[in-house]
Design brief:
By secondary structure, the protein is of the alpha+beta class. It has 1 helix and 8 strands. The chain is elongated and about 75 Å long.
């Protein structure tokens, strides 16, 4: 009798795993980490890049690094943004000592950071604010 139920159990298990995968893909794309960390103080002004990592693989070659002068300065861009892996984008910058910076990710009207699994759907907006050391 138990062997007759095995195909049913396997089918239900497969269905459960498929549903779990669909739910995981349906999760909105969001920022999971940044360099420097958001709200960091005393950041080394020699840091040569700002980096953002997401919870999903990203559509390559698309990004929206956005300025918000009300919250801080936008750094001098020192090169083209590049994806260092499928989930992490790096923006080369030149920072100044004793300066507060604000760098937006996908703010209103700018939504080019998008997950590869959901083209056309921007990742959630995020704001990185940090202050460099010195003066």
């Amino acid at each position: 009798m138990p062997t007759k139920r095995l195909p049913l159990i396997l089918a239900l298990l497969s269905l459960f795993l498929l549903m779990a995968a669909v739910v995981a893909l349906a999760q909105p794309c969001r920022v999971t980490a940044t360099t420097p960390a958001n709200r960091a103080q005393g950041v080394d002004p020699k840091l040569a890049y700002i980096e953002v990592s997401f919870n999903q693989d990203m559509a390559p070659g698309r990004w929206s690094w956005v300025t918000n002068p009300k919250l801080g300065f936008f750094p001098v861009v020192a090169g083209k943004p590049v994806f260092v892996d499928p989930r992490t984008c790096r923006l080369p910058v030149k920072l100044s000592p004793g300066t507060t910076y604000a760098v937006g990710i996908n703010t209103e009207g700018y939504g080019n950071f998008q997950a590869k699994a959901a083209p056309g759907t921007p990742c959630a907006p995020y704001q990185i604010i940090f202050t460099t050391e010195g003066k």
